[in-house]
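Many introductory courses stop at the sequence. We go one step further.
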Amino acid sequence: MSVVQTVSLFILTALAEIIGCYIPYLWLKQGLSAWWLPLAVVSLALFAWLLTLHPSAAGRVYAAYGGVYITVALGWLWAVDGIRPSGWDVLGVSVSLAGMAIIMFAPRAA
């Protein structure tokens, strides 16, 4: 799997997880109709399935995914919640993405 495919799949996975968690948050905190909850279930099932599409070992995928999740979550913070990430947030994202790249793309013995 190419770098672009891997990162794109991680981004889709993060969006599925965030949507799956954001809907119940809105239901509990802001009175969103419970009719939205099945969409959250589908989104979380999609999240789990998307994680299985990576050819790497599951533990490595989960560890690396965390870096992309942090990035997408802060993008969500800005785009959906209207809160601009701070310089510290950007630094944290940079560190997490560097960790993701090391975990996923370091050369490995066959």
